User: Fold this.
Amino acid sequence: MSTADLLRDLVTANRIIAHEGVVDAYGHISVRHPERSDRFFLSGSRSPELVTLDDIIEYDLDCNPIDLRGRTQYTERPIHGAIYRRRPDVRSVVHNHAYEVIPFTVAQNAKLRPVLHVAAGIGAEIPVWDIRHRFGDTNLLVTTIAQGDDLAQGLGANRVVLMRGHGAAIAGISIQDSVHTSAHLKINAKIQAEAMRMGGDVVYLSEGEIAEMRRTSAGHARAWEYWTRRAGITG
Amino acid sequence: MSTADLLRDLVTANRIIAHEGVVDAYGHISVRHPERSDRFFLSGSRSPELVTLDDIIEYDLDCNPIDLRGRTQYTERPIHGAIYRRRPDVRSVVHNHAYEVIPFTVAQNAKLRPVLHVAAGIGAEIPVWDIRHRFGDTNLLVTTIAQGDDLAQGLGANRVVLMRGHGAAIAGISIQDSVHTSAHLKINAKIQAEAMRMGGDVVYLSEGEIAEMRRTSAGHARAWEYWTRRAGITG
Amino acid sequence: MSTADLLRDLVTANRIIAHEGVVDAYGHISVRHPERSDRFFLSGSRSPELVTLDDIIEYDLDCNPIDLRGRTQYTERPIHGAIYRRRPDVRSVVHNHAYEVIPFTVAQNAKLRPVLHVAAGIGAEIPVWDIRHRFGDTNLLVTTIAQGDDLAQGLGANRVVLMRGHGAAIAGISIQDSVHTSAHLKINAKIQAEAMRMGGDVVYLSEGEIAEMRRTSAGHARAWEYWTRRAGITG
Amino acid sequence: MSTADLLRDLVTANRIIAHEGVVDAYGHISVRHPERSDRFFLSGSRSPELVTLDDIIEYDLDCNPIDLRGRTQYTERPIHGAIYRRRPDVRSVVHNHAYEVIPFTVAQNAKLRPVLHVAAGIGAEIPVWDIRHRFGDTNLLVTTIAQGDDLAQGLGANRVVLMRGHGAAIAGISIQDSVHTSAHLKINAKIQAEAMRMGGDVVYLSEGEIAEMRRTSAGHARAWEYWTRRAGITG
Assistant:
């Protein structure tokens, strides 16, 4: 896929995560440069629903813009840079504050885990990272390289890391994958919370089932076509 | 009703279940061939909201396409074939993952039962089937004839079978019936979950009430007209 | 107000209760004849969102149509006729199945009561009527004069009566009043259910507050203007 | 900013709080006069979604209109006047009934507190005011100067005061700020209620974090752009 096509997918992905309620005014999605693994693309500071091609900025992994052209930047771009640096397998990152997910970042007794087969991509283990552990009282935003590194360390080898009182970071092997995972993180959170309220034990997917589901990942193309159309993109 | 009219209803039904939130990117609805009980019609692999007449594929009960013409198929078509084989009374099948229903497939203490009169069509007994019991760790998708048969056996003589960590299969006597049942399965699940949280006992419909309601099934035509218009079909 | 203007309001009211989620495919609203208190107007069998002036049928209080002209009738029209017969003060009736309200009809320990000032119109006492008490196993629909009478007796001198496993009937002094009450019945149910889940006692409106609120009923005109516009009626 | 621009922002703010579900038919937003601190602007009695420039009325701090021109007034304008009188730092006030917030006004054991970083603006301490304590049984509306004063006293030096069985008043340093705070009050309430239901302790933002977040208040401009577009304002 050419870089131009990839950037068009990135714009589409911004619209999709907005339309599906994965993000609201806040949140962002990035993609690693297809030809230079030490670069990534991320929009300038704008709500995902409004992002266009002109907003996309190229960054090095220290989060320095290659050619800013006066555009305002997201202060939280270190989330992206740090994950790309630590995880060569990751090609796309979403950061968001889905309302269904946040309760799992602050409720001490609850642990987010996959209950639904199409949500298997969120992974068996979803750590919760707390910026306070290393950085004390902050505004909770991940705005320095050191904070981004600490978050990336919290993510470890997993697909998703929750951020206490803030949201989540999702690491995917493609734009389509990080969109699919972040959308189903939200859906799984909603369903799991409801099941937990029903009083008895909840049956989660087994490790074997999660592995099988991720190996096959059927239906991703179908979901991408569906979400693209719903977001009003006809191209 | 001619086969052509029936297929138009099938397309309408796809739009309706998408618009009413019975399905999202995933899920499907089929109808048995009106003239050949050993055949059924099901869309190719596409989200229900986007299905058109050109997507509809004719299948035999072993889920072999009669004339594929290069279209991609749903891998889970054995859900449909197996139910049509075991249940000559069934003329339409819905498979879906409604978010309100899934908690009842994984919460050990909760049992989905009709609380609302217009939901009586879901039936007094709604079994929960678990693919793991016979097939061990899988990706949970029902992709083989053997898995479809096991599910159809789990359904038994009922209208609905829940699938652990996955969704549901709904068996109707017509397209309108399977749409009505799957829509009200979701509505009933939402209402029942809320009532269960209120602390005391919940009054469910009696067997006699369910039988009376299904005998009369008033209002199906009114709902169909309403849902068709809401889905933007003016025809 | 002329009868013609009143019927236009009735059509508007149908659209409003559909748009605000007070009804879905089912449910209806009627108004007493402004010049003949032994007559009322109610749509023929059609979902409220689709009702037009041509659908409105005039009835006597025994629910006989004055001039049917081939239109299909709601089978549950005795809900309306019976309430108008027993309650000369009532000039408009809504029957609906709002999803937020139904849990309160089947949860044994929960009692719907006003918690929100603008919902005071639902009244301090909201009885729950069960068709089974006098009529045994039925399809729960109120289709006979005797059933309607029993329901109207259950309503008593109140504004709202809940119907077990079915929905509610709301009695107003005008179309605007029954719409306002049924909309806020739903809003109050949602809020009260949430408050009940928070663990401690819930503070309900006092009888004195309910009386004060109903005496003043400020803001009804503002809500009507708002709902009319939202329902797409510009007139 | 000129007064004309400010009034345009006030109209935009009305549309935003309607579109984002901060208000429904009821609720209002005002702004202090930029040149005369003893005046404020507030719409005439109309639902926020419908407010236009022509609806905006100028008031003194006793809530007397400067030039009414036959327009109907909100009876609850003393909420605004009283807060502007007691709190010179406040430049914009929202009064609303968001459904997610009201449970916290009536549930005895629940206390609304920030759990989400972007909601830090609601403040560490959110008092609940009850009109009954000083005024006995009323219709709960704040319609007199004395009632407004009592509410403003209840607010104290905080950003938000909850009103039992009624809603909330939000005090901001600008239109954008009061809109942001009231939108996130609702989002925080929804998330906190969900977290509370998960059974264990909930981690709230620390005082230090709240202070840091409010000091930086990053992203307000991005949210304003986003909400403006979503509300259909292109200007």
Residues 175-196 of chain C form the longest helix (22 residues). Strands of chain C lie at 28-32, 39-43, 56-60, 92-96, 128-129, 160-163, 167-172. The mean pLDDT of chain C is 96. Helices of chain C lie at 3-19, 78-86, 103-106, 132-135, 145-155, 175-196, 207-216, 220-230.
